[in-house]
């Protein structure tokens, strides 16, 4: 799941759903679980950030959010690498 060099956390929501997160330089972000297929989207600015699978999972974090920033990515690996770069440049944060 996500980037091999980053620690992965598995959280369980109140609804019993599992949620995978990774951490880089003080920033936590979501990544799809191992059996989740795309399409994948990278959200670097929104009400939550991460690499998310499907428009339906991503939309609540960006729709109607002024300054939201997102892009489609071809793979989870690409999304996580771009997220790391955005965090290091100070360009990824929760709005």
Question: What would your notes on this structure say?
Answer:
There is one protein chain. The chain is of the alpha+beta class and 95 residues long. It has one domain (8-94). It has helices at residues 55-62, 76-88; strands spanning 8-12, 18-24, 27-31, 40-46, 50-53, 69-73, 93-94. The chain starts with 7 loop residues before the first strand and ends with a strand. 28% of the residues are buried. The model has no long low-confidence stretch (mean pLDDT 91).
Write the layout of secondary structure elements.
Layout: E1 8-12, E2 18-24, E3 27-31, E4 40-46, E5 50-53, H1 55-62, E6 69-73, H2 76-88, E7 93-94
Parallel strand pairs: 4-7
Antiparallel strand pairs: 1-2, 2-3, 4-5, 4-6
Helix content: 10-25%
Question: Helix segment count?
Answer: 2
What is the β-strand count? 7
Structural class: alpha+beta
Low-confidence stretches: none
Mean pLDDT: 91
Report strand %. 35-45%
Instruction: Tell me the radius of gyration.
Output: 12 Å
Beginning-to-end CA distance, first to last residue: 25 Å
Order of helices and strands: EEEEEHEHE
- Total separate domains: 1
Largest β-sheet summary: 4 strands, mixed
General shape: globular
